[in-house]
Write a structure and sequence with these properties.
By secondary structure, chain A is α+β, with helices and mostly antiparallel strands. Chain A is built from 5 helices and 10 strands. Chain A has a 5-stranded mixed β-sheet, with no helix packed on it. In chain A, β2 and β3 form a beta hairpin. Chain A starts with a helix and ends in a 7-residue tail after the last helix. In chain B, the strands form 3 sheets. In chain B, strands 2, 3, 4, 6, 7, 8 and 13 form a 7-stranded mixed β-sheet that branches. Chain B is globular. Classes of the chains: A alpha+beta (256), B mainly beta (233). At the A-B interface, β2 and β10 of A face loops of B.
Chain lengths: 256, 233
């Protein structure tokens, strides 16, 4: 026996109210998520002193903004459902409500939005991979990095300088060729957004461009023995003229 | 029921306290159980930073533990190489510190030639039996004195590396210490200027230990080839 027309209209009206409330909650949570993405990561992350660190932070913010809308759908529906359809004093209903089938608009929207978000992630990832795997510029500064229990040491083959200090010029791409003389270490400069394993008898490579002069931390990120916690030093980013002066002061030569 | 709960809670607290005490005891056992070796200030010296107090410290490097800080029986590992007389060093801040090392051990090749150069001392130099040097053959090195620490807002960066030349492999054992004969030692002297107070570590970078790459045993145990260097205010 079919429901009377006024009951059907009441159900439809109630359903619209539930959807509007859930959508409103979704918008509020999304806005909160976006505000979080825009203001929190840049304060929590290490100071961004290289092109990679800036890109990593931008990627994190962009994906958090996109993810905020998706996560908010789940949280809003879950939260609203728990609140609006709680059983109360009458106890739980004897049966489930009618299932939703063949809602073309909902299915189309879901598939379209999911596809667009996935496509954005793929294109973004491929672009980032391309920038990482592309050849370094001909002007790049080569620095050989050697990890050893429990010290980092550096050599500049083109400048003929060996140093316990890592000193770099601002605005010039740097290629780090990293190896180890004993166990596995990990060469990590948090403010540059780079980290690469230092393996015995292997040379791993990473590169970046320092963008802000200053003093930043260099750490070992792989537990490597007794004084692992002391395997920490500093990288000094100088102006180009300052770097050239440092090279000369350490007996090296500067290419004209 | 209530009694069982109380007993259970009490047992939990007692076991928890026992675990904490055991952890503290284990950590204390791992710390260097050696006296603080304090550099003695004897006069002043002219440096690039002006006239500073001049402090002196004597160290030894032994091919075993029979003559070092581990007792006449050599302690738990008589065959391990060791620094001496202590691995707890203290030097004054804003001073010129001169360290004299009596080096009794023979040597082989460093893993990393980087540590064959003298770095961080006055003039990046040391003296070997009175003769100055800035670098030695990395394939013929006994040990290194390598000190550094975590640079931070509260303490300045410090990096000192002095390679210690070896005695000859066939050098006759002519010095008797604690009943054990050793060759005539090489005497290495170097100086460095300290800054603000800070806590640093020092160790040997020559793989003179045991196990993989020679970095286990005395190289990985505080009090043998690894210790602390305190710059005291």
């Amino acid at each position: 026996m079919a429901d009377p027309p006024d009951t059907v209209e009441k159900d439809a009206s109630a359903s619209r109210i539930h959807v509007r409330r859930a959508v409103l909650l979704w918008v509020v949570i999304t806005v909160l998520g976006i505000v979080f993405a825009l203001f929190v990561p840049s304060r929590v992350f290490p100071f961004q002193a290289s092109s990679d660190a800036t890109r990593i932070t931008a990627t994190f913010i962009a994906f958090t903004v996109l993810g905020a809308a998706v996560a908010a759908v789940v949280w809003a529906v879950a939260a609203y459902t728990l609140w609006a359809f709680r059983s109360g004093s009458g106890g739980p209903p004897e049966s489930d409500g009618p299932s939703v089938r063949r809602h073309i608009r909902a299915e189309a929207a879901w598939i379209t939005v999911s596809s667009i978000l996935t496509l954005v992630a793929i294109v973004w990832g491929l672009a980032a991979l391309s920038s990482v795997s592309s050849a370094a510029s001909s002007d790049a500064l080569i620095v050989n990095v050697t990890g050893q229990q429990w010290v980092w040491s550096y050599s500049y083959p083109d400048e003929h300088v060996n140093s316990p200090d890592l000193v770099l010029p601002v605005g010039r791409e740097v290629v780090f060729r990293v190896t180890s003389k004993d166990v596995v270490h990990s060469f990590w400069i948090p403010s540059f957004g780079i980290k690469v394993d230092a393996n015995p008898a292997e040379v791993t490579q990473t590169r970046t461009t320092p963008t802000v002069p200053g003093l930043y931390e260099v750490r070992c990120a792989e537990l490597c023995g007794l004084y692992h916690s002391y395997m920490e030093s500093q990288v000094k980013v100088l102006t180009r003229s300052g770097f050239e002066a440092w090279v000369k002061a350490n007996g090296g030569k500067v290419e004209p | 029921m209530r009694t069982k709960l109380l007993v259970g809670a009490l047992v939990t607290v007692v076991v928890g306290a026992a675990v904490v005490v055991a952890a503290i005891l284990v950590l204390r056992a791992g710390a260097i159980n050696q006296p603080l070796l304090t550099a003695q200030v004897r006069g002043t010296a002219q440096t690039s930073q002006g006239v500073l107090p001049h402090a002196f410290l004597n160290l030894d490097t032994w091919p075993d533990s029979m003559a070092g800080p581990h007792g006449p029986s050599g302690g738990p590992h008589p065959g391990w190489v060791t620094y001496g007389p202590s691995m707890n060093l203290s030097v004054p801040a804003h001073s010129l510190v001169t360290i004299t090392v009596h080096q009794y051990d023979s040597g082989e090749a460093l893993l990393n030639p980087f540590f064959a150069k003298v770095r961080g001392t006055v003039g990046d130099r040391a003296t070997l039996n009175g003769k100055p040097y800035s670098e030695i053959n990395y394939q013929h090195t006994a040990h290194t004195f390598t000190a550094r620490g975590i640079p931070s807002a509260t303490q300045p960066s410090l990096f000192i590396n002095v390679p210690l030349p070896p005695t000859a492999d066939d050098a006759p054992a002519v010095v008797k210490v604690n009943g054990t004969m050793y060759p005539k030692p090489n005497v290495i002297v170097f100086s460095f200027v300290t800054g603000d107070p800070g806590r640093y570590v020092f160790n040997c970078e020559f793989p003179c230990g045991i196990g993989y790459q020679g970095f286990a045993g005395p190289m990985s145990t505080l009090g043998y080839m690894a210790g602390t260097l305190q710059v005291a205010g």
